[in-house]
Known about the structure:
By secondary structure, this protein is of the alpha+beta class. It has helices spanning 23-32, 91-98, and strands spanning 10-12, 43-47, 53-59, 64-70, 87-89. It has a 5-stranded mixed β-sheet. The longest helix has 10 residues, at 23-32.
Amino acid sequence: MLMLPSTVRVYVATGTTDLRRSIDGLSMLVRERLALDPRSGHLFLFRNRRGDRLKILAWDRSGFWVLDQRLERGTFAWPTETDAAPVEMRSTDLRLLLAGTDLTPTRRRRWYERVA
């Protein structure tokens, strides 16, 4: 289970990614395709063409982490936009995605959020 502080943002690379890429290849994709800094401390998610594998790239001040999850059955629900702009999701949505929940038919209610 991932425990993430509220300051960590989660970015989803829309479309498909060749997951044979290593840490250097994924960080290059973050820089070029998403136009973000891979050493920002945020999480970057990538999905393969079949939809059954997911990689998460993370930086923790001492180096990169790559987390890899492969589903035995089914696929991950994924945004279908093909533009280069990343999609941002909340850490609670990431937990639901990793648990296999399809977030497409769900609707987030408007709740009061405190501004720091």
